Amino acid sequence: MTPRQAGAGRRSTAVKATACAFGVASMAVAGAALIGAAPTLTASPQLLATLHYLRGTNIGWIPTQQQYEDFIGVALDGTGTPAPDAPYEEVPYNAGFRPFSHGGFKDLTFDQSVAQGVQNLEAQQPAAGDLIFGFSQGAVVASQYKKTHTGNTYVLVENPSRPNGGVMERFQGLTIPFLGVTFSGATPNNGVDGAPGDPTIDIARQYDGWADFPTYLWNPLAVANAVAGMVLVHGNTQTELTAADLAAAQAAGSDYYQHDAASNTTYYLIKTYPVPLLIPLEHILPAPVIAALDKPLRDIIETAYDRSDYSKPTRATFFPRVKPAPQTETVDAATSAPVAADPVAGTHSLVAQKTTTQKTTTQKSEVQETAVQKTAAKPAEEAPSDGAAQEQSASDDAPSARLRPTTRERRHDVSTPQDEQTNRSSKSAASQVKSDDDGSGGAGGGGDEPSSRARGERSSGATDSGTAARKTGSAA
């Protein structure tokens, strides 16, 4: 093969990889628009254990057998996972992605290839304690196998089924029929009855769109950067990953290293520099310029990610979801406070008014009782004749009857303006009677109301009639 032919072959491979990445990412985003610090994982050395490994999709550059085994060794050493002494066993399968993989339309579709890989892995009958290693599509095969099998240790690199980041979960439930791709969801926790699942290590490089796709699709810069990472970062992990990268991730904080005890899974995120969008410019622009561009671009891109929990299956959305729960109690308290304030204040005012009215009514009742007692205590000889007494009695009883509180007044204990008028009339009548008996006429019987004066005049008339009757009787 001439150098020109080799160059043409590399360009053809790059074009295929780019077309695959762009096609899958763009259709996944379109489908979404329609449907909406822990200890390092270690294991006891087992001399008889076997490592079963699955390669990634046959697209782009393919490492040699030795390169791939070195890659496996780096992943195991960097995560503190002992390597079995037995030779590694490759799980053969098509590893196709028709029509983008090397076999073109002769290869299997992605779904068919994954199903074949699961069958061939089961055929090897991994024993308890065996290690299962998967890269890229091989990690999807291992994730599907893990759903129905227990007792193994998993090391997954650039896993499209990574719960928070992998495209298989970001667009879970979406299918691309003409490509034969089903987004099958996250790597499962295969623990039984609440027990932790099989020990699992999940390694991803930052901005590799297959394993670290944005959470929020509103940011086109982040989406474009992830697609660039599918082409420029993903495949190169097989030769660029180092044990030092894994150690640095473990020391860099929770964005780069997390351990989930419930699923017994440790997550690594290897920092990518510069961001994939700038990688093509590294050989054109000076390093200081690349560094100056990387910082603001990275800040904008990171706004499209939620890195709080890599173990939580997280689908892609266009915008962050608003959490209204913290506002519920505050809003209720704020809205209820002013509504309750007026009735409470009004109640206090009403109680105060009732108390004052009750005191006034009590004082008036005492005055009425005193007037009645004075009237009853008069000597019998000074009393008017029977007829006059009856009229006087009727006149005296009328206000007394009116002074009796009604059921409603007794219920509320509140004096009305009629009660006050009646009280004044009663006092006026009592004073008028006393004045007549003392010979003072009607001078002392004036009240504040016209009705009180009328009652005083009736009382005076009744007294005069009684006196005239006595004189007539004496003349006879």
UniProtKB/TrEMBL annotation:
<dbReference type="Pfam" id="PF08237">
    <property type="entry name" value="PE-PPE"/>
</dbReference>
<keyword id="KW-0732">Signal</keyword>
<protein>
    <submittedName>
        <fullName>PE-PPE domain-containing protein</fullName>
    </submittedName>
</protein>
<feature type="region of interest" description="Disordered">
    <location>
        <begin position="341"/>
        <end position="476"/>
    </location>
</feature>
<feature type="compositionally biased region" description="Low complexity">
    <location>
        <begin position="353"/>
        <end position="364"/>
    </location>
</feature>
<feature type="signal peptide">
    <location>
        <begin position="1"/>
        <end position="32"/>
    </location>
</feature>
<feature type="compositionally biased region" description="Polar residues">
    <location>
        <begin position="415"/>
        <end position="433"/>
    </location>
</feature>
<dbReference type="InterPro" id="IPR013228">
    <property type="entry name" value="PE-PPE_C"/>
</dbReference>
<feature type="domain" description="PE-PPE">
    <location>
        <begin position="88"/>
        <end position="306"/>
    </location>
</feature>
<dbReference type="InterPro" id="IPR029058">
    <property type="entry name" value="AB_hydrolase_fold"/>
</dbReference>
